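Figure 6 in text form: structure in, sequence out.
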């Protein structure tokens, strides 16, 4: 019997119905290893990152934590380094 990632994800309680066709197509293309990784992450995530999940549930991510220590949020972004918009290219 061939491996069906969608059925494995449904059996693990990750995938329900209805599912958008594009999402179903993406899940159908997963390998068995990728599917098992998703199943493992789904079961372990709450135990591994409870603080992150707690913040997600309470929606307390209004501003970066560093802004509480006096840093401006704009100073924390290094986007210019990668985009080339900074002076480093001169």
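Output sequence:
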């Amino acid at each position: 019997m061939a491996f069906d990632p969608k059925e494995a994800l449904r059996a693990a309680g990750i995938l329900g119905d209805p599912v958008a066709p594009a999402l179903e197509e993406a899940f159908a293309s997963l390998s068995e290893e990728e599917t098992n990784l998703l199943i493992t992450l789904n079961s372990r995530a709450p135990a591994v990152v409870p603080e992150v999940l707690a913040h997600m549930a309470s929606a307390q991510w209004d501003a970066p934590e560093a802004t509480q220590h006096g840093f401006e949020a704009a100073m924390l972004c290094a986007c210019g380094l990668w985009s080339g918009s900074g002076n480093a290219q001169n």
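Caption detail: The CA atoms of residues 82 and 88 lie 10 Å apart.
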